[in-house]
């Protein structure tokens, strides 16, 4: 028995530990309440109040990773970039020293790195921003948002590098390497940028004595002797600089980077906002089309685009230009807004001017589409902008009460750009149930199918490929509606349009075109009528040929999705702004074949005939292609599951086992079981158990210890 003194000491220690635990629990509860309150305020746009809540939570629990990450996000919204970096630094430090960089904290760490990168980018520290985002990608490989942010950060870093290189070359009088802008071009950019600066400049402080090489502001532009001449001078400078900025390749990239560094981007935005000093009467101010078209040229660079993307006042001026009677200004305003609204953050910032009922911009855009023959460039920009508006619930709301027939009428337009933009608009509009239903009633599904080529063109350029991809994307999206599918398949002519035209595009060299065509066919095959139509059009060999081609590309491709790819799931709306990869073609083709192969899927076709069609062409038959898809390591789970499901269906037939054995299915299906979890592994296991009815395949299954592998992965 311990002495009384020892008992008293242990009791005191126990009491102290209990009190500490109680205090820590209370502090964590306070921190959690403050975090929840801060999140609610943040969602309401009250960023300053949200930050105070996060700080109050951190006062209670300084080691809370989530509070530091949230405080960084609030700081970003408030423009306090150094403060945001400090919170992210603390978050990463706590994760390292208190959590030993555990996997449980990877998600919050990735968010902190993203936010630190955003803050560093805002401060112009692009190299550090890129490093942060590369680290974030390692922690969260499946984040398209991080991948897209990294892509833009690398672009900004490249612009910064080019701007510094151009300044260095100018200082030394050295010409650049092959493909870059010449010294004469860079000097011309500087002169034009000076013309765009305000005519009345404040006094420029000279370098302080003893200041060494300290940079001084650029010299002010020369005063314009005749103020009435300034609008014409601005228009000329904007036009010439736009021509330079539109140059292709490294030369154009150098021009855009140097123009941004020289202040031309900010100056053009200021002029477009109407902030230049008005000329004396009767001279008129410069037309908004000139600076807006220059901004469009400069915004070919993501770095330039990011600078002005959230400028709501500039957005309002563009909206006003769209409503003006000047066609050039309307086209320039629509094109600039189309370029700026490509990101969710920009759309959110520009929502007020874009949804202002007094401007009625959505109606004006549709009116521009209706007058496409008079002004095709304005109509193309209007259709593109409408497509971007459809990506956001608040921005597409005004479209629900407007007729979209003028946009649909552009689907078959002779100009590829107009048809492409219209297709993207229709495809994005399908993300809204009300808009999709109205499009179905207008018969847009038939118009989309009719706009596709009757057969695969012998040669198609990039513009035509983009056109086909946009039309197929829209068609795939509208086919999510049961009524659209029934309408298309109700007549022989509709079946021809809906099945044979997309099927011909499976032979396209453009991966996105093939992926979208496969998605159209798989959605048609949801219905027995569609499955029968694909079968009757000799679709099985055509789909399997596309599957084999894309499997080969998938096997040799080392590229992974960077956030710009979108194959789409069977029930989701595809994005018209994203491309696809061979993996998405494989998935769509496998899904189509599995739907046709499913037992009783096409009841009017004898089972033996269906099986013979899948086995036609021996080692290159559809079932052989499905076998390769099931075993491929880089196939999706959905693809492997569908391919295995098709094999399981045909393995039901005892009289087919000898024919199936000739394709050697046991080893590939065992590989599928080993690689997969859940439904794909279960489907492959079921197929193997049915194939075991053949003595030859049963022996192979035992040789490869298939029963043990199946037993370890598949549960009843």
From TrEMBL:
Q: Which GO terms describe its cellular component?
A: cytoplasm
Domain of life from the UniProt record:
Eukaryota
The region called Disordered is annotated at 202-230, 555-579
Q: Which SUPFAM superfamilies match?
A: ARM repeat, TPR-like
The record's Gene3D superfamilies line, in alphabetical order, gives: Leucine-rich Repeat Variant, Tetratricopeptide repeat domain
Biological process (GO) annotations held by this record are: axonemal dynein complex assembly; sperm axoneme assembly
Q: Which InterPro entries does this one have?
A: ARM-like, ARM-type_fold, TPR-like_helical_dom_sf, TPR_rpt, TTC12
Q: Where is the composition biased (Acidic residues)?
A: 563-572
Name of the protein? Protein unc-45 homolog B
Q: Which organism is it from?
A: Pycnococcus provasolii
């Amino acid at each position: 028995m311990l002495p009384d003194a020892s008992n008293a000491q242990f009791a005191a220690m126990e009491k102290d530990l209990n009190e500490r635990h109680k205090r820590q629990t209370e502090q964590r509860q306070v921190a959690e309440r403050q975090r929840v309150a801060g999140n609610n305020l943040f969602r309401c746009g009250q960023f300053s109040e949200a930050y105070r809540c996060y700080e109050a939570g951190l006062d209670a629990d300084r080691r809370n990773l989530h509070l530091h990450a949230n405080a960084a996000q609030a700081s970003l919204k408030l423009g306090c970039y150094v403060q945001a970096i400090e919170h992210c630094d603390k978050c990463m430090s706590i994760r390292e020293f208190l959590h030993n960089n555990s996997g449980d904290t990877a998600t919050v760490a990735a968010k902190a790195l993203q936010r630190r990168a955003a803050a560093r980018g805002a401060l112009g520290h692009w190299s550090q921003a890129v490093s942060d985002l590369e680290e974030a990608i390692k922690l969260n490989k499946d984040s398209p948002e991080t991948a897209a942010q990294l892509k833009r950060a690398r672009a900004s870093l490249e612009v910064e590098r080019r701007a510094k290189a151009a300044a260095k070359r100018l200082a030394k009088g050295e010409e650049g390497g092959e493909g870059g802008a010449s010294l004469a071009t860079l000097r011309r950019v500087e002169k034009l940028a000076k013309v765009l600066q305000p005519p009345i400049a404040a006094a420029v402080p000279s370098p302080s004595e003893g200041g060494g090489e300290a940079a001084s502001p650029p010299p002010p532009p020369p005063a314009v002797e005749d103020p009435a001449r300034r609008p014409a001078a601005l228009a000329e400078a904007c036009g010439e600089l736009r021509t330079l900025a539109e140059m292709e390749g490294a030369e154009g990239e150098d021009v855009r980077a140097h123009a941004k560094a020289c202040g031309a981007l900010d100056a053009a935005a200021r002029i477009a906002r109407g902030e230049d000093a008005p000329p004396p009467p009767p001279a008129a101010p410069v037309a908004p089309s000139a600076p807006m078209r220059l901004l469009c040229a400069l915004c070919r660079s993501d770095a330039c685009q990011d600078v002005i993307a959230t400028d709501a006042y500039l957005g309002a001026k563009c909206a006003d230009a769209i409503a003006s009677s000047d066609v050039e200004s309307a086209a320039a305003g629509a094109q600039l807004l189309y370029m700026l609204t490509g990101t969710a953050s920009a759309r959110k910032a520009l929502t007020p001017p874009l949804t202002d009922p007094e401007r009625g911009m959505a109606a004006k855009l549709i009116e521009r589409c209706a007058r496409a023959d008079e002004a095709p460039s304005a109509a193309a920009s209007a259709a593109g902008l409408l497509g971007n508006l459809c990506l956001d619930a608040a921005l597409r709301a005004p479209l629900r009460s407007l007729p979209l027939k003028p946009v649909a009428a552009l689907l078959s337009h002779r100009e590829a750009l107009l048809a492409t933009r219209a297709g993207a608009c229709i495809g994005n509009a399908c993300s809204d149930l009300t808009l999709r239903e109205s499009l179905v009633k207008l018969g847009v599904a038939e118009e989309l199918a009719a706009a596709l080529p009757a057969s695969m063109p012998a040669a198609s350029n990039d513009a035509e490929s983009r056109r086909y991809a946009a039309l197929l994307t829209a068609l795939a999206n509208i086919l999510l509606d049961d009524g659209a599918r029934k309408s298309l398949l109700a007549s022989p002519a509709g079946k021809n349009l809906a099945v044979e035209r997309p099927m011909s595009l499976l032979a396209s060299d453009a991966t996105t075109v093939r992926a979208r065509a496969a998605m159209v066919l798989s959605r048609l095959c949801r219905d027995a009528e569609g499955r029968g139509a694909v079968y009757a059009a000799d679709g099985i060999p055509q789909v399997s040929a596309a599957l084999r081609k894309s499997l080969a590309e998938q096997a040799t491709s080392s590229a992974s999705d960077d956030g710009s790819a979108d194959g789409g799931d069977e029930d989701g709306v595809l994005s018209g702004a994203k491309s696809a990869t061979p993996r998405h073609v494989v998935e769509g083709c496998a899904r189509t074949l599995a739907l046709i192969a499913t037992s009783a899927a096409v009841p009017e076709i004898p089972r033996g005939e269906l099986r013979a069609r899948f086995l036609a062409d021996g080692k290159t038959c559809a079932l052989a292609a499905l076998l390769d898809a099931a075993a491929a390591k880089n196939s999706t789970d959905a693809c492997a599951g569908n391919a295995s499901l098709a094999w399981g269906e045909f393995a039901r037939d005892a009289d087919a086992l000898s024919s199936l054995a000739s394709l050697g299915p046991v080893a590939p299906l065992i590989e599928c079981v080993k690689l997969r979890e859940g439904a794909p592994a279960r489907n492959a296991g079921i197929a193997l158990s049915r194939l075991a009815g053949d003595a030859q395949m049963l022996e192979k299954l035992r040789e490869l210890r298939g029963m043990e592998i199946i037993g370890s992965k598949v549960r009843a």
